Amino acid sequence: MHKVWKLLLLSSCLAVSFTAGAQDDQAPGQAQANKGSGARAELAKQPPTLQNIYGRKHVLLDGRWNYIIDPYETGFYNYRRQPFDQSPSGAGGFYDDRKPKDKDDAVEYNFDSSPTLAVPGDWNSQNAKLEFYEGTLWMRQKFNAAPTAGKRYFLYFGAVNYEAHVYLNGKKIGSHKGGFTPFQFEVTDRLLKGENTVIVKADNTRHQDDIPTVNTDWWNYGGITRDVLLAETPDTYIEDYQIQLAKGDMGRIEGHVQLAGAKGTTGAQDVTISIAELGVKTTVRTDVNGRAAVSIALPKNKVRYWSPEDPKLYNVTIAGATDTLNDRIGLRTIETRGHDILLNGKSVFLRGISLHDENPLIPGRLRGEGDMRMMLQWAKDMNCNYVRLAHYPHSEEMIKLADEMGLLVWAEVPVYWTISWEKPEVYANASQQLTDLVVRDKNRASVIIWSIGNETPVSPVRTQFMGKLADTVRSLDRTRLVGAALEVHRTGDVVTVEDPLAEKIDLASFNQYAGWYWSNNKEMMKFSFKVNYNKPVIVTEFGADALGGYHADSDTKWSEEYQDQLYKNTFKLLDAIPGLRGMTPWVLTDFRSPRRPHPYFQDYWNRKGLISETGKKKQAFYTLKSYYDQKQQQYK
Ligand code: GCB
Questions:
Q1: Alpha-carbon span 13 to 69, nearest angstrom
Q2: Which among 135, 340, 392, 604 has most CB atoms closer than 10 A?
Q3: Is 590 close to ligand 1, i.e. is its CB under 6 Å away?
């Protein structure tokens, strides 16, 4: 499917490390890059990240990378704490990958004899010493390249948590902040014929002023957690495109194509979009900046619309004068009308489950298609038609699998709990991460909801921040719904959703923990919900911890019976809400969390999974499945 050209991976060595921060004033997908050598080289604007990276001619730079653990950042700062890469020579850091010149030369690091880690992969799960580590790792990979004149080359990272500084052949090519979104650097002028060395400083230190902040309920996995690719494009290439049904119009595709030229201009060019199976072939002419709007009338009665029941993907070809890309795209509409969610015009109930980007069996971040398939298949085993990919962007491959397997998706950014709402640079970071998510996944039919955050406490400054995010996401994509996992408020036994942010989004979507954080199984039936919005009600979380295999009566917390009874009670409570159109209980599998230290029941695991850390289905798994079987009948 992908054209992978021959680049030989040589021995591997890499160290990742990262810190926190945001990219300001940059276009989607941009990262900072130093052009020229040394520290004082000017920062150049990077072209936006390539749409459909896996559809490009590319080589994966995954595999074994050598790493050096550097808690004091000795490889980055000199003894006066000045970054080596900002010095006049730009040299001195571990990215020099230096070897002693002779016997009277001492070098205090050595990538060649350092251990290796698998990329993609978090470091915490690969070395017991790194399980709780937060700080800097340097990671090195070597590869052979044969750059061709007239081609352009991009070094693309699927995700590095959290801050990455990237060096190619000893020179800094840029940095990036944000642990779950892709970034790239153009390396056309830097790539050598023959052996190349890429070194990454990855730093997963948490900071209050980052997105997310210091406080979350998930493991802060560090490292290069997704693929690293070297992509080749022609001089003028297809940078971006959107090919999706127009909002609420099942008869028309609406979108755009964007070409990029080496000198910033492409001139007017023809681009042809074809869907052979539908007999569609449309040519558009770009403006001088390479942009063209796309509007394609679809043949009547021929289209198979994408849905969980029939996840039909069409082969779409986008061809310019010098570049051609193929994608597999589903065609569907998504809208709300009053309490209803309309998928292709038909009311649906979202039979969902929340999940983290974590394989409990490792445990660690999902490393590839096998892990991802396992997670999504578990959701399907429960008769889900929908998943909430919490609480940050999951990988591009995961979304593609959801397209293929027929699962609707809620995609989210890590605007979680107590963000530094008042700081413009924090907003810029959140907005950048949201933008990068939308830019990456806007051609995926499975994604129906962009979530702008989770359980953000109501206050004027927060509502302004979140409101701006809602505006941003709508300016990027009109076709999908906007959601957020809101908090509820309790007055006596009445649980109310009262949040000015609800006005800005398309759903009355909220988390609630009746029977677990508030009250218990015996008493939880006293609660009732008041949701005063004429919008579809989606319960984005509820749940209870249960240690897999721990059995007791249904009043005993931590038991499978307790969790199971809580689910049964919750269905009754939620079914009484007019307008209930879906839910994503918390959560598919047990997941690791430093906030969960109970030595017996938790052992640093959040136990709200319906599947244990050994992959065993708990009782409540089957209870949720039979509830979903009924809902499926109801919404046939
Ligand atoms: C929540 C959070 C989720 C937590 C969950 C819990 O409300 O959104 O991230 O893991 O509760 O288990 O407490």
A1: 12
A2: 392
A3: no
